[in-house]
Amino acid sequence: MREDRFFVTADKGFGDIRHFPPGTHAGILVLRPDRQGIGPFVGLLESLLACCDLGAFGGSVTVVAPRGVRTRRPES
Question: Could you report the per-residue pLDDT of 4-28, keeping only the tens digit for each?
């Protein structure tokens, strides 16, 4: 049963589009803080939520780092 859940993780392996092609899932958001700990992780997520609608990342693989946001969307 497919539940269409958007996945948020710090595991960079989920950013590999060869294993998780855009469009084959509800969406993957990989948070890549530049420091260890929950604070930097939460800070990245808060920054993203303040500027972006998560619905815009549906079906895509998105990597968020202090340097910016990189999104791979499903091919049309």
Answer: 889 999 999 999 999 999 999 999 9
Q: What pLDDT is stored for residue 1 in this prediction?
A: 56
How many H-runs (helices) and E-runs (strands) does the chain carry? 1, 4
Please answer whether residues 44 and 10 qualify as being in contact, where contact means their C-beta atoms are separated by less than 8 angstroms. no
Query: Which of 38, 39, 31 has its CA nearest to residue 7?
Result: 31
Q: Annotate 4-69 with DSSP letters as a single string.
A: ---EEES-GGGG-TTTS-TTSSS-EEEE--SSSSHHHHHHHHHHHHHH--GGGGTTSEEEEETTEE
